[in-house]
## 1
Amino acid sequence: MKTVHLIAAARPNFMKVAPLWHALRASGEFEPRLIHTGQHYDPNLSDAIFADLSLPQPDFHLGVGSGSHATQTGNVMIGYEKIAIEHRPDWLVVVGDVNSTLACALVGAKLRVPTVHLEAGLRSGDRDMPEEINRLATDVIADVLWTPSPDADANLLAEGIPGTRITRVGNIMLDSFEMVRPEVEAAAEWEAQGVQRGTYGVVTLHRPSNVDGADRLEALVAALIGLQRRIPLVFPVHPRTAARLAQSGMVARLAQAGVRLAEPLPYKRFMSLVLGSRIVITDSGGIQEETTYLGIPCCTLRNNTERPITISQGTNRLVTLATLDRAVDEATGQQYQPRRPEYWDGQTAARCVADLNARSYPVGSKE
């Protein structure tokens, strides 16, 4: 039986890892072992997801916590290298684009452990985003690249990656959603937040470009207050954003305007909130895909997206603070039917396992 190390660091990682863990376990061919780097350490952003997605407690927990990009990346490398040397896997799977993704991929490459990048090939074209650097570097050094969509394949081929290293498996985030969909629908989180289904907007904002600068944050708060006058807003506040709002004294302004501020929500409750919403306003990545899958309009408050298929085939649109009002009005005035890209079907984890079985070269064969 081949051992597979699955790296989880941030909330979206857990949602991508969970279906793969279950599929590997069920195959009888692989023994999955879960490594939690501790990059996200808020219980609602990490620990609760294990219960929501029926994951066991991690086999290893690095507990790296916060820090600069260099500090975090270095600490993950140091911690995971010890584990990989002592408990060498047959395969290493890294997911997404956080610092832990690149750090563990570097360890795998240097120790000559066959390394897979799940959700490979996504590109925003914006190297001011730390995640873009992580994506580019991880895809260069990983042995196998599992992509979610045709544009990701094209990006990798354009960068000179051999096609033999690329397998399009689809969007594994949607496997997670389908695993727990009945419970998500039953949760009725909108009732807990005091809003009616289909009438409200969900806000998720955490990127430094939106929340770190005082002037930008003030403008963002003003824009949300303006929107609240037309559509009730529920805002589960990321810890980073909560700290910035508290420092600037803007929590009271949002609350007084009627914006419903909430703690970060566990996965099932959060997806229930999204499922019942009229629109989502975000700067996150995965939720652009989930809203496309569900046919819910999404306004992404960024200059670019590494998921352009959510615009060309989905319900997503890029907005600025200047265009947000108009975009929300236009989006909420339309009816959407889900247009799901190929392989966005809840069966991605099975394709991942099949690809490992098809490749299945032994440890050390790259040398």
## 2
Amino acid sequence: MKEGSITKQPGMEIGIYTLADLGPDPHTGKTISARQRVAEIIEAGKMADEAGLDVFGVGEHHRLDYAVSAPPVVLSALSQVTKQIKLTSATTVLNTVDPVRLFEDFATLDLLSNGRAEIIAGRGAFIESFPLFGYDMSQYDELFEENIELFRKLSTNEKVTWNGHFRSALREAQISPRPVQKNIPLWVGVGGTPESAARAGRLGTGLALAILGGDPLRFKPLVDIYREAASQAGFLPEDLKVGVTGHAFIGETTQQAKDEFFPYYSNYWGYLNSQRGGVGTRMSRAEFNQLSAPETALFVGSSQQIIEKILHQNELFGHQRFIAQMDIGGMPFKKVAENIERLATEVAPVVRRETSK
């Protein structure tokens, strides 16, 4: 294989991502080990690659109820058992990582994967990494701004001289290794704040929208803000990328998908709310039915229903990428594997065809 030779399929990129949560199966009450969870993530990545999906993402958490705290390590393992699929963090908590270390880790991943490394940067759902690594939450925005600016400088220069507020200065520092790609693709993950969307546009990074429910129309202003900020900063429209990330479950029929997914989805939000310090009340079936209605952003249904939702959002956002989180709520790997197959064989071909017209 030539350096950086990845087969680009026409139309929208389709992929999956995992946050590696360790939740109990709602039907059995059993929670798998971190070792098994990581092994299943590697197997899911292999399946996604062999099925022809475009992207595989791994999240970062620093808690005992999640199995992955070091995405570049897991992605490096995946790089050795996959051939084409792009490998991204989902997300890297950029505020609490040294940008030099981050660049070196992902440049190494890029070498191992022959040019397939990417980064989605953001705060993530939790704040444990701030005290863990000695950072102050009150400096969240300043840390993010400084770290992303330094990362971008490291990407374009083999030797860097730099001064900042939060780490030691660099004096003609050699930044190695250099990746296969000219620049490791960088996306900013945005959950709903206009300031984050504007920042992504101003910096010319990709915009990764986390749309977990509700009417997707409410996210269109964020895409507009992103593109306007990018235009004002001098970036060309064709250089901008928008991605949508969201929860998904695909069944033979929409009713079957809802019936199968509900116990896991309710379970997931129950323990997620507890982890965030709230009351771990499980979602009711009525609430779930409302969240998974045809006009909402929750991707639960038949393959046709998922296709229609993705294409509807594409009309709103004109996005180039969709990646789905499927393995939540203690879901057994067998069901995850079935979803990967359906996404790759029934959904992706239609979406790619329709979005390449």
## 3
Amino acid sequence: MVEHIVQAVVEIFTQNRYADKVIERTFKNQRKWGARDRRFFAESVYEIVRWWRYLGALAGFDPTKTAVDTAAVWQIWSAWCYDTHGTLPEWEETKKFDTQNFAARKESISSVAIRESVPDWLYEYGRQEFGEEWNQILHAMNQPAEVFLRANTLCGTREELLRKLKGEEIAVTPVSELDAGLKLLERKNLASSESFKQGLFEIQDGASQMVAPLLRPEPGMKVIDACAGGGGKSLHLAALMKNRGKIISMDVHAWKLESLKERARRNHVDIIETRVIDSDKVIKSLEKSADRVLLDVPCSALGVLRRNPDTKWKLTAEEVQKILILQSEILQNYSQMVKPGGLLVYATCSLMPAENERQVKKFLEHNKQDWSLVEELHTLPHREGFDGFYGALLKRRS
């Protein structure tokens, strides 16, 4: 098992592969593993990736500034194992780990960037944006995320889903801030449950569940989800619209929209039409046609590091600047699809004001005659317990 963990971490850091994809492929190759083995493997990989820099310091080096190889990952795994359990198996690969000076090394780590396990550039970026609060945010983002469900109200109420899940021995509790939200109390393979197969719920973080209601969709409307991805928010919009009206779910990746079609069938949704954005003509053809437009734009994803901790090691300051340009272009161009009098939501799963309120402020400054800000949504993991999310509701005057 440990050899598989080490190999997975090597792939993540040397081949630039995403942790969730590496874990998924390993599961397919290890079909004899039971639920306990799978959980141990996945949690171990995520925890090592999450605490990569801190564990490297405990092992005596900075893995963000040195070459990563199998030997280095074994040292980091040893640091994680010793830090967690206080002992090490007597294996050949673990004999190089220096337990004698472990306590002294741990005591000597004064850098918050190392203690909270982030690259230096990201630590400084966050400090500039949030000041002292950044340390609290970082600490919260290093905790494993809780799992939230959204009851599919096309199939029944949240209370009916609660009873159904109880019968399947899935422990959940209602979330007061969310009309259809439930929090999972004990991790289970939800995808194999009958309720999931019947389309009675979707797995969706609490903050993400706040975005579709912010758009204020109504039955019978024409709604465009212009950066739909896998379609979680499109499905939520369909439920809020009582499956009446029309939703055009768009994305530049056709394969993501194929996944949405499957999910829509399972969710008993038939008002979604998918369109691939393969040219500017797709956007222009829909000018001033929609009552509502949702722009869940590409972003740094720094608000969901609890779920995707490898993002902080793959992202660079240069890439953030490119993302800012792309977001500005999407907001300016895609907003033209909203009818006069219609509403638009600009949303990201980022914490950073540069991607959020400052993007909206810049857009409004350039379009002050046509657009106004109605409402903003901010969530932070150390405050609400949800992912870091931002949403701005804008109204088009003309």
## 4
Amino acid sequence: MSDIALVHATFADAGEAERIGQAMVEAQLAACVNLLGPCTSIYRWRGVVERGDEYRALFKTTPELARELADAIAAAHSYDLPVIEIWPVAAGDAVLDWVRAETR
């Protein structure tokens, strides 16, 4: 088993998630993006509890590219404070080889 990085982000709508996901794969910052669909988020923002529908995306990349990918997602994102999380994940060597081959 080897490590890859999963980068998780939420977006305002499905179109934004797809547009940014496509751009990150085309830029070879991610080998793949899974668009996970709508979710309901409940969060505190500026002292008020808010609730809203968001769209989740999970990007597969290398540990070396994870921060650059997260920064690129944030730069293209519509939110003032996009929540982008980086998760190290154990994956099979074949998956790691594929992720490395499809990213720069």
